[in-house]
Each structure stands twice: as C-alpha cells, then as structure tokens.
Amino acid sequence: MTDMYRVRVEAVEGNRLTCRVTVVYSGETLVPSRTLAFRFVWEPWYDLCDGMTRHLPGGGKGVTPEEAREMGRVAPLNKELANRDMDDSDWNQANADRFVCCVGITDRRNHDKADSEANEQVDPPHATYTITVTDPAWLAHLAPGMEWDTTGFDDDVWPRVHQWLTPDIMALAQGIDKERAFERLPILADALQEAGCDCDDILNHFRDVTATHVRGCWALDVVLGRE
C-alpha cells in the first residue's frame, strides 16, 4: 500500500509527543484524529518487534534486527498490543482512548490544496501534531529524530455538529481556543448538551478533568469546524 504520511519525532516530554507529519500521498488530509495519532505511537513499536531499525535514532545504525526486536519486546506497549492487528480499525476506534487522551494540530500548511496542486507543491502539506497519552510509558520506545513513513488511517467517526453551533456556543469555543482556557471545556460541554449534542465522545472529552488538553484539541477543532 502507498505510504500516506511521513512522521518525524520532534520531542518526547513526559506524556506528550510532538511530531511533524507530512503528507506523502496527495489527497490525504491532516486531521486531529485520535485513531491516526494512536497509529503514530503504535507503528514504530510494531516494526521494532519485527526487527526493523528504520525508526531508531540515527536510522538504527549499529543495531541488529535481534536487538531491535528486544527493544520492542521490553517496551510497555508489548504487554498491551502483542498479537493485536494494527489494521483492525474497529479495535483501534474502540480502544484509542485507552492510550491517547488528546491530540491537537497546529501550524497546518498547504492543508487545503487540491490533489493536482499538492503534486506540484515544493513544500507538501504538513502540520505539527501534539499527542498526549494516558501513560508516559506508551512513549518509551520513541525518541527525537525517529522518522518513518506510515500507511496509518484515520478511523475516527467524525460527528455532525452543525446543528449545535449556536452563536453563544461558537463564542465560547472560540474564546477557549484563543485563550487556551481549557478549564472552561466542561462549560462548553454543558452548552453543547443543552443545544442537543448527543456525541458522548465530545462531551466526555470536554468533561474529563484528568485529560491533558493541548492546543488544537481534536474535539474543539470539531466544534470550530477545523476537522
């Protein structure tokens, strides 16, 4: 299958992963998808378990396939994901929240270019993804400088929210986004529910006081129409 994205790890800080994601296969979009972010975390570990060294810092120089497999085996994800099929979209969609608590996108460039234009772009569509995970251990196999191509899919089901977007809700959401006032997200959840929103994914995410929310939060982007 044609690779669709190139991912490069920029930073790993506690439970937060920052990476640059570039579109390889024209026509793909850069969306704040939890399932796609989960694939970005999962795929390097998956390949390490197969002895592939392309995800290691420095291209894996001096690391044998056997050593790469051992790195994958001792990574905490091994206990959770061993024998799982990375292409099982139903399982990914049902379980992404166990691993990823919030994903945000910033600095999107050339995101809206048509296919024909994207093929001619010197600078292809790209963005910065900030992914917070539920446990820093899920990032133990990642390090700045790792880079790989992926055929990861966005398996999220994006809700239709247009009927909920009253002027008051939009003003509240825009204020939270501009001021990064994530402590107001439960208030936004209440307003959305009163307006008829029945999307548990969005409501629960906004009300989750344990989640580490990030700029470009996927759920806030859905409300603001950036998905």
Descriptive account of the structure:
By secondary structure, the chain is an alpha+beta fold. It folds into two domains: 5-150, no CATH class; 162-223, no CATH class. The protein is 37% helix and 17% strand. It has nine helices and five strands. The protein has helices spanning 34-49, 65-74, 77-81, 89-99, 115-118, 167-179, 185-194, 200-207, 218-223, and strands at 5-13, 16-23, 100-109, 126-133, 147-150. A five-stranded antiparallel beta sheet has the order 3-4-2-1-5. Strand 1 and strand 2 (16-23) form a beta hairpin. Helix 1 (34-49) crosses helix 2. The chain is globular and about 60 Å long. The two termini are 25 Å apart.
Shape, principal axes of CA atoms: globular
Order of helices and strands: EEHHHHEHEEHHHH
Number of separate structural domains: 2
Total DSSP E strands: 5
Instruction: Please outline the major beta sheet.
Output: 5 strands, antiparallel
Radius of gyration: 18 Å
Helix segment tally: 9
Average pLDDT, all residues: 85
Structural class: alpha+beta
The rounded distance between the terminal residues' Cα atoms is 25 Å
Strand arrangement within the widest β-sheet reads 3-4-2-1-5
- Helix content estimate: 25-40%
Low-confidence stretches: 114-118
Beta fraction? 15-25%
